[in-house]
Design a protein that fits this description.
Order of helices and strands: EHHEHEEHHEHEHEHEHEHH
Bound molecules: zinc ion
Strand content: 5-15%
Strand order of the largest sheet: 4-5-6-7-8-9
Largest sheet: 6 strands, parallel
C-alpha cells in the first residue's frame, strides 16, 4: 500500500479510519497576518483548533484532511502543535488558493510553470515550511471568476507536480458555474489520471445533471460543505447525496464540512449566521439523516473512510 504523508509521519491506507476529508484548523488572510500581527491571537487560535479536533475525536474521527495552502494561512507549526495536543492524524497539502480566486503574487506570475511546480514538489518530497512534514496532496482553486491566466498556471503546475510525484489533487470549485468541468479540462490536457482528483464543493449544488456529467469524467467529488446552509440548505445537500448513493456513486463521494476552527475572513459575530458550520455537524445531524434516507452503513463507511484513503493513497 502506498504511504500517505501526515504531520506525524507516513500512514498506510488502512490506518486512516474515520476521516473528515475537508476541514481547516485555521483560515487566515496571510498578508494581513504578516503585516499586522497585533490583530491576531495565535494562542487563542491554537486552543480553538485543539477544541474542534477533540470534538471530532469524540465521534471517533481518526484523521482530518486540512487543505490549507498558500493564501489561506497554511501553518505547519500550528498543525504540529495540534497534533501534539490531540494525537489526531492530520494530513496537509501544498498548492495555491489564489487571491480572490483570480491572481498570483508577482513572484510566481513572472516565472515559468515548472518553477511553480518545483515549489510544490519541494513540499511533497522535502517538507513544508522548513520542517520534514510532507504534503500529501496538491490544492488549487477555480471559483466564480473562472480560469484566469493565473488560475490556469496554478492548475497546470499542480497537475505537473502531481504527475511527477504520483500525489493526488484537490480542486476547490464553484459548481453554480460548472467550474468542476473546466478544471477537469485542464487536468485532462495535462494528462492527469482523473481518479487522482477530488472536485471539492460539488455538494454546493443539487444539479444532478451537472454532477453526473462531472462524475462521468472520473474524479471523486466533495460533498464537503455541510453546515454552510447559506450556500445550499442541508435538506438539499442530503437529498443530493441520497440520490447519488441510490445511483451507485457512494464510491465517489466524500462527506465533510469545510469548517474552520478559526477564520478571519469576517468579524467573529458573523459566525452566528452559520451555526451548524463546525467539525461535528456531520456526525450529529447528517449521517443519521442519510441513514434515514436509505443510505446504508456500508455506503457511509465507503464515503467517510475508504474514499479519502483510496484518493490519498493514489
Ligand atoms: Zn476548504
Amino acid at each position: 500500500m502506498a504511504a500517505i504523508e501526515s504531520v506525524s509521519g507516513p500512514l498506510d491506507e488502512a490506518d486512516l479510519g474515520l476521516t473528515l476529508a475537508h476541514e481547516h484548523l485555521r483560515t487566515s488572510s496571510e498578508t494581513i497576518r504578516e503585516q499586522f500581527p497585533h490583530l491576531y491571537d495565535p494562542e487563542q487560535e491554537l486552543q480553538a483548533a485543539v477544541a474542534e479536533v477533540r470534538r471530532a475525536q469524540e465521534h471517533g474521527v481518526k484523521t482530518i484532511v486540512d487543505p490549507a495552502c498558500m493564501d489561506i494561512g497554511r501553518d505547519v507549526h500550528l498543525a504540529q502543535r495540534v497534533v501534539e495536543e490531540t494525537g489526531i492524524q492530520l494530513i496537509m497539502c501544498t498548492g495555491i488558493y489564489g487571491v480572490h480566486y483570480t491572481y498570483l503574487p508577482h513572484h510566481f506570475q513572472t516565472r515559468d510553470l515548472d518553477y511553480v511546480a518545483d515549489a510544490f514538489v519541494h513540499d511533497l518530497e522535502e517538507g513544508i515550511q522548513g520542517t520534514d512534514v510532507k504534503a500529501a496532496f496538491l490544492k488549487c482553486a477555480v471559483d466564480e471568476p473562472g480560469i484566469t491566466n493565473d488560475v490556469e498556471r496554478v492548475l497546470r503546475a499542480a497537475a505537473r507536480a502531481g504527475k511527477r510525484t504520483g500525489r493526488p489533487i484537490m480542486v476547490h470549485t464553484h459548481p453554480g458555474t460548472r467550474r468542476g468541468l473546466e478544471a477537469m479540462d485542464v487536468f485532462d490536457d495535462e494528462g492527469v489520471d482523473p481518479s487522482k482528483v477530488v472536485v471539492a464543493h460539488t455538494g454546493d449544488t443539487d444539479d444532478l445533471d451537472y454532477i453526473e456529467e462531472l462524475l462521468g469524467r472520473g474524479p471523486y467529488i466533495g460533498m464537503d460543505r455541510y453546515g454552510l446552509d447559506i450556500i445550499l440548505p442541508t435538506e438539499q445537500r442530503n437529498a443530493t447525496v441520497i440520490a447519488l448513493a441510490e445511483r451507485g456513486y457512494a464510491n465517489r463521494m466524500m462527506i465533510s464540512q469545510d469548517a474552520c476552527a478559526f477564520i478571519d475572513w469576517y468579524p467573529p459575530e458573523m459566525r452566528s449566521m452559520v451555526p451548524n458550520w463546525h467539525f461535528t455537524y456531520v456526525f450529529e445531524q447528517i449521517l443519521p439523516a442519510l441513514r434515514e434516507g436509505g443510505v446504508t452503513d456500508e455506503q457511509i463507511t465507503t464515503m467517510m473512510e475508504e474514499n479519502p484513503a483510496r484518493w490519498l493513497a493514489g
